[in-house]
Prior knowledge:
Layout (H helix, E strand, L loop, with lengths): L2 H5 L1 H21 L7 H18 L5 H28 L1
Amino acid sequence: MNLIEWIGYIPAVIFPAATLMQLWHLLKTKTSEGVPAFTWLAFAIGNLSLYIYAEKYTELQSIIGQLATAALQIYVVLLIIKYRKKSN
């Protein structure tokens, strides 16, 4: 594995970790106050688009860093919608 491939693991760790921190907060507090659904939806669309654009469909860095992160971000959006409906 060369240096560039190793560097590809940086976003594959950071992006899902950051999203998991938001998920943890939402699940812990059961409120979506101050969490913008549109921003998280934009992140998910961006990651899905980048996954398609990069054409590295079988590389672990792309699968985790973009595809799995997008799935987590969509879950964030769904939780935001769920908790907003509860508060109304």
